[in-house]
Design a protein that fits this description.
This protein is mainly α. It has one domain. It is built from 9 helices and no strands. Helix 4 runs antiparallel to helix 5, helix 5 packs antiparallel against helix 6 and helix 6 runs antiparallel to helix 7. The N terminus is likely disordered.
Length: 216
């Protein structure tokens, strides 16, 4: 079977092969577009949280409803991108990546709950969320690609900004996550476009297949 001319052929076994497989599926199924959408949903939700916080609304139910909406909408977007109508098996590393971010969600909920129990005189859970985000992206860097360290460093700086300007913490966190997801998503979408030289000199696939084969 002929290989996809747009994508490099990866190693045949081991972790490197699993990483290559995950990358090919992510590009093929347009996971990048899904991440971009999730980023904007996340920004919209956290700007709404910022609006509530800025006008003095401290109702936990209001914030929980917004966070729940963010989680549900994001899950639906990702579920649609990850759906495989051809029922091909998922990439081997997808389960590992999912477990890392599920753990992230559990820890963010735990930190917010603990902050609520001890009192919201100081909203320290917001900076903790950014620190947990650093852990998530750093883990992606060690497993998948070191370029995820860019997002990890960004989240560390986000935690510093939240500690320095707590009054706009929700906005800072939402903007930072939107930038991170858009950066990753745009990089994946860019890989779908062949290099300029390839587009110029590569004949159309149908024309190439229909051309007669000269012998001798």
């Amino acid at each position: 079977m002929a290989s996809d001319p747009e994508l490099p052929i990866g190693p045949t076994s081991g972790l490197a092969a699993d990483i290559a497989e995950l990358g090919r599926v992510a590009v093929r199924d347009r996971w990048g577009l899904a991440l971009i959408r999730v980023g904007w949903v996340h920004l919209a939700v956290f700007m709404a949280c910022q609006g509530l916080y800025s006008r003095g609304d401290r109702s936990e139910l209001h914030f929980l409803a917004l966070w729940g909406a963010d989680l549900i909408i994001s899950a639906l977007i990702l579920r649609r991108a990850l759906g495989r109508p051809d029922r091909r098996p998922a990439p081997a590393l997808l389960g590992v990546v999912a477990r890392v971010w599920i753990t992230f969600l559990i820890l963010t909920f735990s930190s917010a709950s603990l902050n609520s129990l001890v009192g919201f005189e100081t909203d320290w859970f917001k900076a903790i969320w950014s620190t947990l985000s650093t852990f998530g992206f750093a883990t992606m860097a060690w497993i998948l690609n070191l370029r995820f360290l860019i997002a990890a460093v960004q989240m560390t700086l986000t935690a510093v900004l939240i500690a320095r300007f707590p009054g706009v913490a929700y906005a800072v966190y939402g903007i930072s996550w939107c930038l991170a997801l858009n950066g990753i998503g745009l990089d994946l979408e860019r890989r779908r476009t062949p290099p300029r030289a390839d587009r110029r000199f590569r004949p159309p696939l149908r024309k190439a297949l229909s051309s007669p084969i000269e012998v001798g």
